[in-house]
Amino acid sequence: MTAPLRVADLATDIRELTEAEVDASIRWLWAHATPDGDGCGLVLDRDDLPGVATVAATGFALAAWCVGVERGILDHDEVLTRARGTLRTLEESVPHRNGFLAHFVDAATGERQGRSEYSTIDTTLALCGAVVAASFFGDADLDARLERLLSRIDWRWLSAERDGRTVLRMAWVSDREDDYADGADEAGFVSAWSMTAEQLTMYLLAAGHADVSEGLARDLWRGFDKPIGSYGGHECVYEPGGTLFTYHFPLAFYPFQRVRDLDGRDWWANAREASLASQAWCADQADRWKTYAAGLWGPAAGLGPAGYVVNGARPSAREPHADGTIPPVSLFGALPLAPDAVAPALRLLRDEHPGAWNEWGATDGVNLEGDAPWYAPPRYGLNKGATALLGAAALGSTLVWDAFSRHPWIARGADKLGFTPA
């Protein structure tokens, strides 16, 4: 088993920078959540769109607020009160379809925004955070609401057969009112998780359900592609676009370094190799991109100078998309995996790019391709959440991993999936 990182594993200056970033991210998640009412606890998608929240960022926040209690920057009783309100919001205010939550919702009321999809991954991230909060606090109200939220999900509804494999669809969406009745047609379903990406914890939630048999749970785990590729001597199961956040998000909640899956795979080591491959690929693109030439790396999804972009690196199924933007969350996400590889880029950001930081910590995107450096103006809830959890892990905290993995629902899911101790 890979031992948890200790504080001593980080250089003093990187530890101090990470502590400041983790605390700033937690404070962002606290300040940009609805404090009470029907939308209590809902966290903004981005801080320049004050009316729009996302349930996925809310899930990251639920776990990050617990880390805030551990770090002494948030009050235990205040976080418990807000956690209770947040699970009440998820259960009673946010619309759901067969248990799957609407992705984008009104921050004040929880009402669905436009045609926002009922999403498997965003529901997963919301409930991962809810699991952490319930496990951390050991509170009867949280336990009861979490059990109802998890139990009402009908995983079979979004299961499908594709080319002889069982997969989970990504979402359901409809703009026809009569489709909300039972028997919505196939046109309402959106794509499928047929590839390796950020969805690993989703199978733990599904497998923990009493209505999901061991056979179905394992069929779903085996149902997504796991292609193996390499770059710069680093071999991994890769995501089609090579975008880095997909490797990091599952590690924010579940300690994959402590287990092997039913095929004996080490997903922690896989994420480390993917991170180092991304670094190697970026270094080899130095003649094309000034951002990479400067020593920054970790292309992923986020805001670039021309708008939202999904960048990637090798290995990938196709030529990676690139515009020269890197999100600092990639570096903090890779920090618990490969601290020595990440440290030079973090020092570069700290020393040469003061415009990339403010009271809320690192910006969401840095691009050096123009005449002057560009820094994304808003902060995103998802990235602040991932930074908080993975940055805290790099500092040595196992709070989230322990709280999540010991919850009976998750332990049952891991057992059904055939996970074994490392």
Low-confidence stretches: 176-185
- Helix percent reads 40-55%
The whole-angstrom Rg is: 20 Å
Terminal Cα span:
5 Å
Shape: globular
**Proportion of beta-strand residues:** 5-15%
Please summarize the sheet with the most strands: 4 strands, antiparallel
Strand tally, please? Answer: 20
Q: What is the overall number of helices?
A: 15
The chain-level mean pLDDT equals 95
Structural class per helix/strand content? alpha+beta
Characteristics:
single chain, 422 residues, alpha+beta, four-stranded antiparallel beta sheet
Explain what the structure shows:
It is a single chain. The protein is α+β, with helices and mostly antiparallel strands. The protein is 44% helix and 14% strand. The strands form 8 sheets. Strands 6, 7, 8 and 9 form a 4-stranded antiparallel β-sheet that branches. It has a 3-stranded antiparallel β-sheet with strand order 1-2-5. A 3-stranded antiparallel β-sheet has the order 15-18-19, with no helix packed on it. A hairpin with a 6-residue loop joins strand 18 and strand 19 (374-375). The protein is globular, with a radius of gyration of 20 Å. The chain starts with 11 loop residues before the first helix and ends with a strand.
